[in-house]
Amino acid sequence: MSEAPLNTIEKALALNLDPLKYGTIIEIGAGQEIARWFFQAGGAAGTIAKTMSAYDMHFSDAIYGAESDRRYVSRNRLERMLAQEYDLILSRIKKRRPEGSTFFSFANTVAAQSFEKRGECHGWMGVRLQSAPDLPPDDIIIHVRMLDDTNVEQQDALGILGVNLIYGAYFYADEPERLMRSLLDNLKWGRVEIDLVDFHGPKFGSVDNRLMALELVKASLTPAILFSPDCKVEIPSEALYKHSVLAMRGKFKPVMNSDMARLNHAKELFVNHPDVSLGSTIYLAEITMSELANEGEIETADFLSRIDQLSKLGFHVLISEFFRYFRVRQYLAHYTEEPVAIVTDVDGFSEVAREDYYEGLDGGILEGFGQLLPPKTTAYVCPNLDGDRVITLDDMPIEEHLRPLITYLRGRGQLVPADDFVPKPEAPLFGKSDAA
Fold this sequence. Notes:
Layout: H1 8-16, E1 21-28, H2 33-41, E2 48-52, H3 57-64, H4 75-93, E3 102-111, E4 122-129, E5 138-146, H5 151-171, H6 176-182, E6 192-200, H7 209-218, E7 224-227, E8 233-234, H8 236-239, E9 244-249, H9 257-270, E10 281-288, H10 290-295, H11 300-312, E11 316-320, H12 326-333, E12 340-345, H13 346-352, H14 364-372, E13 377-382, E14 384-386, E15 389-391, H15 403-411, E16 415-417, H16 432-435
Parallel strand pairs: 1-2, 1-3, 9-10, 9-12, 10-11, 12-13, 13-16
Antiparallel strand pairs: 3-4, 4-5, 5-6, 7-8, 7-11, 14-15
């Protein structure tokens, strides 16, 4: 039986009562909620050298320097804050603290819900700390999306998350997977999502941040993680904004020649769309963990090998927990309003054209297709080979009462049979030496 986590006050108090841990807490954008927990716990003078919020941009620029892009909720801003505050505490306090002390700086910069309007509520949070006295510091940086409806609720969630991060950085540094899972201690599911984590420094140098990113999905800290073609984790709001997307779902174990053939064929069709520019189109391969999650243990290293293969081919790769494919389309709609195309084959489309696939939805298959194929969305369905026979969308077995739905979607131009695609026998795209 797993041990129940400490509550937030207990975590803050444990840090306050340790005379060898000392640092600063700097918060911009959602009050001083992390610092508040340490003050409420009691004994904060033993741990906190300074707390601060520099809300005015001119004050902030005077302290940390101006940002060339004028973006204050950014990783670059966070890293400036961490570096400057850490250097300050060493230069001003180190000689006055007990021998054996370790020092930290914590910072966040967030855009929380305002009273004027609701936008994308997100932010950057990080901690720089020594794992042992006199060692160079390590950093842990996360990007968080805040999902509560009100500013007060978002402030509360950030406060709990920040305490979890500082506590975990000290007490779970040797177990990074446990550290990440602990970030949601005392937070109900659905209040925050963490879609990027970055460990670096002398102690964390051996941590593979790509594997840690996959652990975020595995632990349900986020529904999906996006990898760039250079195999680095990206923030979807930055990577997908104002980009058209050509998406393909698969297991890619391994990547097959037919996968690339279908994508290249669909690309030729998609770029003829009047609102699509080839240069601003992202090619996305999505792999879901949902089936394996139901079967038991998920091997993240296996997913990483597939990401490596797809990255070599120029794909952005989305690792998700989405079971139903329309959830992928909803995810993309959150970050881009540009056209989206889905490429599949007859076998793949037949899976989403079954009524039992949408069990549990109030609107059943009609709701499912409405979410999968909203305006500015096209599905290209390529033929399959069945022995020597070519199977097209017209040949796909389907319940008779669903045929009018397929006819309707085809008539709207949102379901496009790519019958001029010539399927060939499948073979792995990479040999063993290429995939290694």
